[in-house]
Amino acid sequence: MNKVIFHIDVNSAFLSWEAVYRLNHGETIDLREIPSAVGGDREKRRGVILAKSLAAKSFGVRTGESIAEALRKCPELTVVPGNHSLYEKCSAAFMSILREYTPDVEQYSIDEAFLDMTGTEALFGPPLTVAHVIKDRIREELGFTVNVGISSNHLLAKMAGDFEKPNKIHTLFPEEVPEKMWPLPVGDLFSEGKASAAKLQYIGILTIGDL
User: Fold this and answer.
1) Contact status, residue 50 vs residue 39, Cβ threshold 8 Å
2) What are the tens digits of pLDDT across the range 46-79?
3) Cα–Cα distance between 141 and 143 in angstroms, integer?
4) What is the pLDDT of residues 98-124, one digit of tens each?
5) What's 50's DSSP letter?
6) Which of 46, 79, 135, 191 sits a CA distance of 20 to 30 A from 208?
7) How many CA atoms lie within 13 A of 12 on its CB side?
């Protein structure tokens, strides 16, 4: 039987969880729809960006940079402090839904997991069908979106999950690799660091296919 592995990743997890919590507690502005970020203290300009909205990303705001750097790029950036107890609860609810579809859930971080869905078609249908069910159920019940990557192994499922976001499902089975993976920039290869990518580009290796 061919392996079927899902990689499921929450889109901008900390920011999404903050947004859902605040909307459920009376706020009318969705942090996901404005330039916003989860980080440190905006007034004191301390701390780093832990997560950012797509609108903030369009200004060049990056995860891991300082609040001060982010504010220079986007002075109107809304910055909210992190709430890790909330994120742990949201993560637990997310993982609980995943475990309803397979006992083989490998939590990879607070906001992502691998699911071995091999042999579950008789229960839930083909991989794309159940992927849509899981994705849509998470959005309806928990209020946030996820990406789902589907393949026959962890690496390719992870790569597929990192294709276009948010709220998308992508496949990357071995037969799809030449078309979908080889043309990607070499820096898109999972676990390829910026320094290594720069060295490869320097010697003319520009795409994953070149490598």
Assistant:
1) yes
2) 689 999 999 999 999 999 999 999 999 999 999 9
3) 6
4) 999 999 999 999 999 999 999 999 999
5) S
6) 135
7) 28
